[in-house]
Design goal:
It contains ten helices and no strands. With 208 residues, the chain is mainly alpha-helical. It has one domain. It starts with 10 loop residues before the first helix and ends in a 13-residue tail after the last helix.
Length: 208
């Protein structure tokens, strides 16, 4: 393991680490897995994005679960590999790269998913207890409201605060940025929640 610290890194080093994270994050597992399974092009149904929620609209629950797992793993892998090679401090750059890679994959004309699964994967790599809290809050809100999007947004909003409270100060700053982006990516869902037209868990989804 290299003993490099963030203070010894040039802008080029940071750019390389960001690119590494971005390329991992940009692997479109939702599209790849649905193509292997022979389903309809995931970009032509539902919201048109490549995330697990849209894969679920194919009716293939196992495929959606596998997409969720792979999208989480690519975020976690970007952080963990960078931590192992370069140390803790610069891993936030790889985590940011992985998250943005999922949202804006170069291979798909920068049209990707909404980022929640990769967000969780990055969170697991940095602070798994907070990731457990994320999951618990998601389940609580989802059980109470049956809105998956609201559950994700509530858990996402709480994450930077939990990280700060548990003294993950650098990670809290990263996740504040990621959380803001998640909210922006879910702006249509937020609008439907306010209008009462958002699909509930177990309900047939409208085109989103």
């Amino acid at each position: 393991m290299l003993a490099a610290t963030s203070g010894s890194f040039s802008l080029l080093h940071f750019a390389g680490i960001f690119l590494f994270g971005y390329l991992l994050g940009s692997i479109p597992f939702g599209l790849i897995l649905t193509r292997i399974a022979g389903t309809k092009d995931i970009r032509e149904i539902g919201s048109g994005n490549i995330g697990a929620t849209n894969v679920l609209r194919t009716g293939r629950k196992g495929l959606a679960a596998l997409t969720l797992l792979c999208d989480m793993l690519k975020g976690a892998a970007a952080v963990l590999i960078t931590q192992h090679v370069f140390g803790e401090g610069v891993a936030v750059v790889a985590g940011l790269g992985a998250f943005l890679g999922h949202l804006f994959p170069v291979w798909l004309k920068f049209k990707g998913g909404k980022g929640v699964a990769t967000y969780i994967g990055v969170l697991i790599a940095f602070a798994w207890p907070v990731a457990l809290a994320y999951g618990g809050l998601w389940l609580a809100v989802a059980a109470a409201t049956r809105y998956s999007s609201l559950a994700a947004l509530a858990a996402t909003a709480a994450t930077p605060l939990l990280l700060w409270w548990l003294d993950y100060r650098l990670e809290a700053q990263l996740f504040l940025l990621l959380s803001i982006i998640v909210f922006v990516m879910h702006r249509a869902n937020i609008g439907r929640l306010f209008c009462g037209t958002e699909s509930k868990i177990g309900q047939s989804a409208v085109t989103q």
